[in-house]
């Protein structure tokens, strides 16, 4: 009596080097040329049969017969592996397969002699202690060598079945587990199954290795392990094609439980004929079933014109391909059962074979059902259909089985906010426009709709006063996932930047700067000591010269005067010696007059674009330094704008002074470790860059190409810097705040 025949499983795991052992063996065979030799043997109206022998390992040959259809075109092939025996003609021709199914039919012996001759060394030597010296080692490779030959034939269409009964069934499973070229197998009374059973007081399969080990106690442990390399339970799990099998419940050679242990390891569509009152025999239903299977799987074989050829295709079962879905999403499962290509209603059942979570079927006894999975992971599901129509009268029934793997993924939702933002209120402004890109959202939820909302912070693309605030976003999906992210926005006051030094003449009563003409600047002034004029209309182009006119006014008393003028071309808030544009001693002049001073000022190509300051210092005693305070004279500052040369830029793109830097984005700013600058000029032109400190010293510099710059600034002291990027078309200047890493 068999209890739960569908769940009989191997007792022990396979050897860890199982695949390595057999891959090495196959490589040894592959190194031997096939060297086929064919000789005419016989023929009938439908086929021609040849003797065939092929080169094999250990200087052996593989002997057998091959029958070829008398027809044109390409054909499927069926390889028959032999039952146990040593007598002549243990291997017959299989020309009936040609006649009935229109396929190439090959059958081989595993012995080193012609199939109609006696091999007196059959099954010898057979050292079952060493896996490679087991007689079945070369027998399995003989099957693979026969397949090599079939695939070398020009009349073969690539579709291959392997069949056998008893030892031939065992060899079929062992060969199919090693050779992916096999599409289907048909077996009955399978040997070589569950060799380890005897260790658990259960049956072991033929050829009873563990029984034999009882007579060789010194090697019993080695025999037990060696037998695993020839156990069909491990080969069956590697075969992915279709299977038709017959098991006799009264089999005294290959116990039914051992055969079922192997059958349950097949993962492709499989059909099992249960013969409850049959021993080691093969009922008519088996022979009919394997020919039906051949006609179903190899449709070209049905075109063969034997007058008594059958058209039946037998049973088929399918649950479709493996499936992929998310946790919480129901999966519709559909089992299909056909007999002779027509749907048939049978008793059915679904079950979970493996998987870490629970599976709930809406109706586990229906062909079509839905399944819900409680957790992520891989689940193996199996579908059974049972045909009991012959059970009462003939004690036979069929089980049709197919399985699939369902890969269930956790739903994921990721939300990435922009980097922290730092910006500076422009000079003479109270607020600055702050804009950021919306967070990036990714999800694998089946519903692609993601709800994104801002739950904290200020509105995007609005004016913001100096300060710091946090923006937080929330994303949700229909799968129930949610994610948040946040980033900080820092708005800095303009007075946080390094300013220009102070300078002033405290007694401008006797000499002062009366007027200045420079570009669009046309300014007249009185005795003020210090005055700052901002001229947004004055836009001077690099590489261009402009006249500068100064009017120096005297009262009733006049002295020799000293005049200096600077322009901060590199915008470092300093007036350096190389930025001196005027250095002139004015001789003693009669009072109550205005002395005109004129010079030409060239805006160098190296000047930075944007807001720039000019400082004019008039002093009686001596030439005044740019940051000096003194008694007699006056200081005036003028702010204007340096633009690119108009020959290379359109005026419309440069109208607003702020546009000089709007095409470059620097982030994060403030920064601690890294700094990225991006601008919208296309191409891969080379550019140079500098980081300049408050004193005008170049701290870092380099050359790169493209329209993006990535810098590591972790080594810079905290403070204010200018990032200067010079491209062939323009120069970008951005102030950068470096914060300490804490």
Summarize the structure.
The chain folds into five domains: about 35-305, Rossmann fold (3-Layer(aba) Sandwich); about 315-410, Sandwich (Immunoglobulin-like), CATH 2.60.40; about 415-495, Immunoglobulin-like, CATH 2.60.40; about 505-645, Immunoglobulins (Immunoglobulin-like, Sandwich), CATH 2.60.40; about 660-740, Immunoglobulin-like (Sandwich). The protein has ten helices and 44 strands.
Question: Low-confidence runs (pLDDT<50, min 5 residues)?
Answer: 647-662
Tally of individual helices: 10
Alpha-carbon distance between the termini? 76 Å
CATH architecture of the largest domain: 3-Layer(aba) Sandwich
From the spread of the alpha carbons, the general shape counts as elongated
Number of domains: 5
Task: Draw up the topology in text.
Blueprint: H1 18-30, E1 37-43, E2 47-55, E3 61-69, E4 75-80, H2 95-101, E5 104-108, H3 135-152, E6 156-165, H4 167-176, E7 184-188, H5 209-213, H6 220-227, H7 232-236, E8 242-248, H8 256-263, E9 270-275, H9 284-297, E10 315-318, E11 323-326, E12 331-334, E13 336-339, E14 342-343, E15 347-354, E16 359-361, E17 368-373, E18 377-387, H10 391-394, E19 396-409, E20 413-416, E21 421-424, E22 432-434, E23 440-443, E24 450-456, E25 462-464, E26 467-477, E27 482-492, E28 504-507, E29 511-518, E30 521-524, E31 530-541, E32 544-554, E33 561-567, E34 580-586, E35 594-603, E36 610-619, E37 629-643, E38 664-667, E39 674-679, E40 686-692, E41 698-705, E42 708-712, E43 719-726, E44 731-738
Parallel strand pairs: 4-5, 4-6, 6-7, 7-8, 8-9, 11-19, 21-27, 28-37, 31-37
Antiparallel strand pairs: 1-2, 2-3, 3-5, 9-19, 10-13, 12-17, 13-14, 15-18, 16-17, 18-19, 20-23, 22-25, 24-26, 26-27, 29-30, 29-32, 32-35, 33-34, 33-36, 36-37, 38-39, 39-42, 40-41, 40-43, 43-44
Helix pairs in contact: 3-4
